[in-house]
């Protein structure tokens, strides 16, 4: 039987993997729209507590506008 510590560690590992997967998928989708979020990363405090979190970080104003346009147009960059 797993100890409570081992269970928490497994939950945190799963959350970390889920958050990293989300970062990877988002980065690929943004790249397809020619948008870069330079600070996109896993939010470690959230992920290691068992809550998968992604930190979108900061981006230039022109990138923010392009991101909004891509979202508005279903991912088409224009």
Ordered list of secondary-structure elements with their pairings:
Blueprint lengths: L3 H29 L8 E2 L1 H5 L5 E2 L5 H12 L6
Antiparallel strand pairs: 1-2
Q: How is this structure best described in words?
A:
The protein has 78 residues and is mainly α. The protein has three helices and two strands. Strands 1-2 form a two-stranded antiparallel ribbon. It is elongated, with a radius of gyration of 16 Å.
Please summarize what this structure is:
The chain is mostly helical and 78 residues long. The chain is built from 3 helices and 2 strands, in the order H-E-H-E-H.
Structural class: mainly alpha
Rg over alpha carbons? 16 Å
Q: Which strand order spans the largest sheet, edge to edge or round the barrel? A: 1-2
Sheet with most strands? 2 strands, antiparallel
Helical content band: 55-70%
Uncertain stretches of 5 or more adjacent residues:
none
Shape: elongated
Topology order in helix (H) and strand (E) letters:
HEHEH
Q: Compute the average pLDDT.
A: 84
Distance between the termini: 55 Å
Beta-strand percentage range: 5-15%
Helix count from the secondary structure assignment: 3
User: Can you count the beta strands?
Assistant: 2
């Amino acid at each position: 039987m797993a100890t409570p510590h081992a269970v928490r560690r497994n939950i945190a590992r799963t959350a970390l993997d889920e958050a990293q997967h989300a970062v990877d998928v988002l980065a690929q989708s943004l790249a397809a729209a020619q948008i870069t979020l330079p600070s996109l990363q896993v939010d470690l405090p959230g992920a290691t507590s068992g809550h998968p979190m992604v930190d979108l970080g900061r981006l230039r104003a022109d990138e923010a506008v392009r991101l909004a346009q891509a979202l508005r147009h279903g991912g088409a960059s224009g």
